[in-house]
């Protein structure tokens, strides 16, 4: 036996690593807004260990942080930026004056899976500091990264000199911008975080902290995809207030809200439907928007991230079919969303179909019969695009091989086996008197459900999938050469 040949377990580990890498990359559209100023590194450990603060008698009496998410720019090539204004009232509680190089984090500190793991990009040219109203020079320093098992860069900090007289308040004000690349990842949401842990290096506890997040639209609970508890909502703002606390990494703030463009589109489509509830196109577009918030996928893996919007997406798809029963695309999309929401399907497919077999789904299961029936009606009435590259299409035809595309000179035709009997759709969709030809024209995009705001993201997803496939190919070549 060739001892250089990797084991099957090793190969599976390589494949799983590629999947995790791609998943992590796609899940990185959160712009982290970093946070409290901190004392300088302890000179006895700085440069040889991760950051540890120098001991000080200076206390943070209060802090106020205002984070503004701007309206989406018309030109995505020149994205606007999240603006941050923070002020800190500091007081030297000791008996002697302290003069130190205060530091402020410019890059992430931790690598433990916390909110800091998300994309964090500070526009260094925008960073400015005032001490008691006077602008002071800013330099940059670095400290070694935390031990994490991964090769990670050093931590970068903005540094500035401050003198703290005894028992006198000193006001520190910082302003900076976070790069806010709207739409580049196509996940349809904006993420904001504020790191409180760096304030723990000061003397004693932080007596009070107010953090205000201002959004470009009125805040509702539905628009908040996830947030650190304890906030209050008023108008366009979310507000957190903390008192007499010493923050740890677990106290860091994290918020995910629906992207302003997506939320505005949802509100507009709802308004159209309210005026005309019989508008099937409006229901279809609303279903697209809901589905974008409900799920995300990496080729063969579909993950439901928001059950509320999944339910709304199913309702919108069903309404479109009810209003226009001979619309093949509507039947296909309904079959798709029902498929993704099926508990036996969720997580049942791996990157590139890498699992040895698809989920064990029973055709006599009423839920599966409903999906197959809608899939069949899409075949019967015809669709306007080529869905053969669609993830759902590939998954369902892999699970049920009898649903195979038959090549044609001008079109792709899907054929159901003649022995299959399908349960009628619950929407009482009438069967056609004659079966139209299921003609599929070239698709504009291989993504089944797309909105205007997701166009640039599809290219990124395809790029990531391509990198994963290239890596898998390299593993395969290595195995062949090792035999």
Description:
With 483 residues, this protein is of the alpha+beta class. The chain has 2 domains: 31-257, Immunoglobulin-like (Sandwich), CATH 2.60.40.3680; 261-470, Alpha Horseshoe (Serine Threonine Protein Phosphatase 5, Tetratricopeptide repeat), CATH 1.25.40.10. It is 28% helix and 25% strand. The chain has helices spanning 8-26, 260-275, 280-294, 307-323, 328-341, 366-381, 391-399, 455-482, and strands at 30-33, 58-68, 81-92, 98-105, 128-131, 134-135, 139-143, 155-164, 169-179, 189-194, 206-214, 224-227, 232-234, 237-245, 253-258, 295-298, 301-304, 404-407, 412-415. Strands 6-5-9-3-2-11-14-13 form an 8-stranded mixed β-sheet, with no helix packed on it. A 4-stranded mixed β-sheet has the order 1-10-15-12. Strand 13 and strand 14 form a beta hairpin. Helix 2 packs antiparallel against helix 3 (280-294). It is elongated and about 85 Å long.
Helix percentage range: 25-40%
- Secondary structure: number of strands: 19
- Chain oligomer state: single chain
SSE order, one letter for each helix or strand:
HEEEEEEEEEEEEEEEHHEEHHHHEEH
Q: Kindly report the spatial arrangement of strands forming the biggest sheet.
A: 6-5-9-3-2-11-14-13
Q: Average pLDDT across residues?
A: 73
User: Compute the gyration radius: what is it?
Assistant: 27 Å
| Span of the ends, CA to CA | 9 Å
Question: How many distinct domains?
Answer: 2
**Given the structure, what is the number of helices?**
8
């Amino acid at each position: 036996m060739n001892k250089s040949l990797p084991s099957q377990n090793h190969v599976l580990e390589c494949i799983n690593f590629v999947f995790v890498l791609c998943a992590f990359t796609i899940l990185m559209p959160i712009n982290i807004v970093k946070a409290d100023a901190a004392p300088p590194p302890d000179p006895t450990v700085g440069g040889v260990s991760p950051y540890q603060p120098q001991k000080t008698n200076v206390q943070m009496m209060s802090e106020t942080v205002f984070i503004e998410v701007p309206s989406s720019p018309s030109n995505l090539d020149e994205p606007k930026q999240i603006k941050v204004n923070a002020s800190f009232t500091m007081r030297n509680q000791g008996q002697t004056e302290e003069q130190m190089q205060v530091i402020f984090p410019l890059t992430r500190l931790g690598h433990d899976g916390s909110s800091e793991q998300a994309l964090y990009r500070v526009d260094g040219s925008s960073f400015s500091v005032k001490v008691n109203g006077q602008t002071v020079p800013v330099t940059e320093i670095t400290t070694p990264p935390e031990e994490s098992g991964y090769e990670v860069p050093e931590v970068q900090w903005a540094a500035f000199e401050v003198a703290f007289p005894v028992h006198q308040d000193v006001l520190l004000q910082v302003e900076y911008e976070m790069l806010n690349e709207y739409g580049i990842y196509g996940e349809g949401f904006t993420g904001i975080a504020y790191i409180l842990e760096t304030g723990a290096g000061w003397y004693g506890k932080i007596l009070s902290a107010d953090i205000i997040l201002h959004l470009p639209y009125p805040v509702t609970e539905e628009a908040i995809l996830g947030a650190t508890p304890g906030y209050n909502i008023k108008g366009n703002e979310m507000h957190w207030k903390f008192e007499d606390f010493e923050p740890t990494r677990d106290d860091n703030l994290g918020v995910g809200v629906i992207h302003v463009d997506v939320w505005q589109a949802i509100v507009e489509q709802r308004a159209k439907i309210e005026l005309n509830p019989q508008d099937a196109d409006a229901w279809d577009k609303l279903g697209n928007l809901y589905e974008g918030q409900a799920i995300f996928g990496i080729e063969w893996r579909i993950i439901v991230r928001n059950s509320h919007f999944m339910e709304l997406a199913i309702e919108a798809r069903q309404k479109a079919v009810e209003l226009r029963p001979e619309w093949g695309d509507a039947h296909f999309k309904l079959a798709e969303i029902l498929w993704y929401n099926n508990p036996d399907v969720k997580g049942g497919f791996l990157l590139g179909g890498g699992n040895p077999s698809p989920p064990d789904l029973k055709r006599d299961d009423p839920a599966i019969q409903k999906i197959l029936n809608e899939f069949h009606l899409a075949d019967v009435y015809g669709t306007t695009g080529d869905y053969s590259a669609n993830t759902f299409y590939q998954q369902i035809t892999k699970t049920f091989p009898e649903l195979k595309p038959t090549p044609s000179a001008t079109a792709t035709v899907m054929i159901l086996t003649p022995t299959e009997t399908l349960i009628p759709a619950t929407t009482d969709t009438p069967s056609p008197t004659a079966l139209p030809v299921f003609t599929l024209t070239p698709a504009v995009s291989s993504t089944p459900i797309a909105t205007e705001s997701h166009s640039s993201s599809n290219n990124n997803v395809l790029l990531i999938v391509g990198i994963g496939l290239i890596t898998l190919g390299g593993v395969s070549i290595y195995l062949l050469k090792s035999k």
